[in-house]
Structure formats: C-alpha cells, structure tokens
Amino acid sequence: xxxxxxxxxxxxxxxxxxxxxxxxxxxxxxxxxxxxxxxxxxxxxxxxxxxxxxxxxxxxxxxxxxx
Amino acid sequence: xxxxxxxxxxxxxxxxxxxxxxxxxxxxxxxxxxxxxxxxxxxxxxxxxxxxxxxxxxxxxxxxxxxxxxxxxxxxxxxxxxxxxxxxxxxxxxxxxxxxxxxxxxxxxxxxxxxxxxxxxxxxxxxxxxxxxxxxxxxxxxxxxxxxxxxxxxxxxxxxxxxxxxxxxxxxxxxxxxxxxxxxxxxxxxxxxxxxxxxxxxxxxxxxxxxxxxxxxxxxxxxxxxxxxxxxxxxxxxxxxxxxxxxxxxxxxxxxxxxxxxxxxxxxxxxxxxxxxxxxxxxxxxxxxxxxxxxxxxxxxxxxxxxxxxxxxxxxxxxxxxxxxxxxxxxxx
Lengths: 67, 333
Known about the structure:
The complex is a heterodimer.
Chain A: E1 2-4, H1 12-17, E2 27-31, H2 34-46, E3 50-57, E4 60-66
Chain B: H1 2-8, E1 19-21, E2 31-32, E3 40-48, H2 55-73, E4 76-86, H3 97-114, E5 117-125, E6 130-139, E7 154-158, H4 164-172, H5 178-189, H6 194-202, E8 207-210, H7 215-227, E9 230-233, H8 244-249, H9 255-264, E10 268-270, H10 276-281, E11 291-296, H11 300-309, E12 315-321, E13 330-332
Parallel strand pairs in B: 4-5, 9-13, 10-13
Antiparallel strand pairs in B: 1-2, 3-6, 4-6, 7-11, 7-12, 8-11, 9-12
Helix pairs in contact in B: 1-3, 2-3, 2-6, 4-5, 7-9
C-alpha cells in the first residue's frame, strides 16, 4: 500500500496512516517534511512497526513500514 | 453590528478611577491615570490564532497569555487594549459576529481578574481570527525579575505542566480523547500567572520567564545565554498535562515543536539516558504556559511552600550550572 502525504501538514499525514497500522500489510508512506517523517515514524513504532527511511530526492522521503 | 457587540461587552471594573476619560463617546484614545511615582511601566503585546474550539475560553487564554509577560517580571497589570482580527460577515465568511463577542467576553473576564482596566482596542477585518492584548503593567524597577538574572546554583521551579502544543494538535485532529484533552488544555491556559508572580515579588527573585512559544527548552536557552550560564533540565521531572505523552507517542507533535528543537540543537546537549520523547517535548510550543522561577537552592523549599499556600503547582525541573567550555547552554538530563 502506498500513502502519499506530500503537500500535507501535521496532523493530516498521521490521520491518513494511523487507520492502516492495525493491519500487517507493508505500507510505504511518502512524506515531504521532517514533522511528517517523525510523526508517522512515531505512530508506526508505537504500533509495533519497523520503519526504514529512503531518500527519494527533492525533499521527499519514502517511509517503509514493515511488521 | 461591531459597535453593538462592543457596547454589550462588560468591561473590567475601574475601582480606583484609573480611566480619566474613556472611549464611550467614540473617543479614539483613552486617558489613563499614571501609576504612582517611582514605579516603572512594563509593556508587552501578544496575539494568538485560535486554540481549541471554544471562543470564550480562547478569549480567556489569549488574555492570560498576554498578561503573563507582565507577571513574569513581577509586574501588576494596569491597563490593556484589545487587538482583534476577524472576518467581516460576507458571502465568504460563515463565522458569526457572536464568536467575536464570546472571545471578547472571555478576555474581559481575565482582565477583570487581573485588576487591569480596559483602555480600548482595535479590530481589523481579516480572513483569519486572531486575538490578543497590548498590556501595560506597573513595577518597582529595582524589583523586576529578568530573563538574564540566572546564577549558578539556582533551582528552577515551573508553575504549570507542559503540553498545550500536543493537546491542541490532538483537538485539531479530533483524536479519540480530544474532548477531555481540550478541557485539560483550557484548564491550564486560562489560568493567570498572578500567584506565581506574587511569590516572585515576595521572595525578591532576580530571574524568571514565562513559558510560551519556544517551549521550556527554548526559553531556558534564552535565559542561559543572557545570564552566561548553563541550565540542566531533568527530563524525568518535566510535568506534562494529562494524555500529552500518549498523544505525542501517536505522532501528534506540532511542527513548531520540532522547529524549536532543531533551532536549539547546536546549543543543547541531550544526555544518552534521557528519554527521547520527553527531550523532544521539552520544546513543545506552549500557549499561556506557567512561570519558570529561578530560586537560590537553599530557598527552594520555601518557594514551593509559598506556591502551594496559594494553590499553585510547583515542579522542580532543573538547576543552573556554571558556563561550559563547549558552548552548550542547555543539558537535557
């Protein structure tokens, strides 16, 4: 699943990702600011997900959420 | 319509005839009695965008927030002026003017509690609601507490818990539990720092600040820089409002908090055993936060007892250390 939060500010990205954290299907989240990156990572970690961040260029980071 | 709203607002009482000539007959300026000889003026202005969903409590919050700068120096509020930005009724705006009336009423309740009088104000048409006060206080200049008066050995006492930035974000997100969060937030933000200020004065304290937009970490850094010292905050001792840590761990931390932390990072040393979330929340931007009082270590207990006697919380959150060679001004232990 890919969730694109580019252009959105806090707390929208967390609101988009959180409902999917109860499942176990891999989730990729595109973020374009450090607040979104940190907040989505915190939300995922709290729900037992591992998070890997990959730079995509132009300030965009792909967060790979895996159970 | 605006005129009607303004005339319906109950102004704070003027018990000692401080307003010599008021604005009731469309006067554009107000004559205010000068404070007694020997006192100095302490002047400040602060204006906020809405926090939470209750207009009256937002008005109270914005007033308490603006008055707090006077209290942080040990001043007594003397007169205030309202500053309001509000969308005029039109096809593009569905915000009724009654919202402005509620904001003003809430603010006047807090101004009355502070003992200040209303010396008018200004309202402007704007797309976004904003409200605040220009505050004039009076103070004995020899007894004013300052931002740059920290001394190594001082203990730091905070008078309100932290976390309004996180709670406001949870409210904005309509997160489960946000109704309770909003009540908890307003419970603290609408509270005047008057009692804490009286302890500051009675104990002749030299340094204090109020905790607002830069978070406790940012405000402490300002004090440490001006005072040429280093401050250690004990992250385990930082008090948070109910649900703040839980919401923060869900990712409901506002951008301003991260900006504060990153801006301050080059002057901050985070101890390896400090909790990362608490270290981040040390920079949570506060609205109408408490006072941070610097108290000589041997008088810490006395300060806590004086605050408790007035019903004020007293959280011992850190201490002042001598200046360091590495230039770090804040240690989050």
